[in-house]
Design goal:
It is elongated and about 85 Å long. By secondary structure, it is mostly helical. It contains six helices and no strands. It starts with a helix and ends with a helix. The chain has two domains: about 55 residues; about 90 residues, no CATH class.
Amino acid sequence: MTSKRLINSRRAEVYRRKLRGFTVGEIAQNLNVSEKTVKRDLAWLKSSNKEWFQDHRELIVRLEDSLGEAVDRREEQVREAWFIYHDNEDPWVKLQALKVVSSIDRQREELLGITGMNVKEMELLKRVEALEEVAKEYRAMTEGASRGGS
């Protein structure tokens, strides 16, 4: 392997380890290079990435626009689901609307790279669980009434 290929291979490995959360010292130790070499490789990678983003600005703008539209579509779906939730008395319909909201929230978080359950999502999950119980009872009552009335 040529010297340039070895350097590029090392830089790729430095970057992968940095992405996995390794410290500069850990990377240097694992790759048997100095911390100075790791820092220089990271600086080169940062500069290289910056140049790439500058060279591909139009693509980045299109991706940002597409992401914005995808998030906006999901926001509109959430608004519609909340409207259905508030406009219905049937616990089963309410439950389905909350499930849609929860699902769309997860999709939005994936699109935006957000992880972990926040307070809003925990409250929504509690609502879903409570409504599942109410919906079961409601269905049992309505099915029992329709059988008894037949």
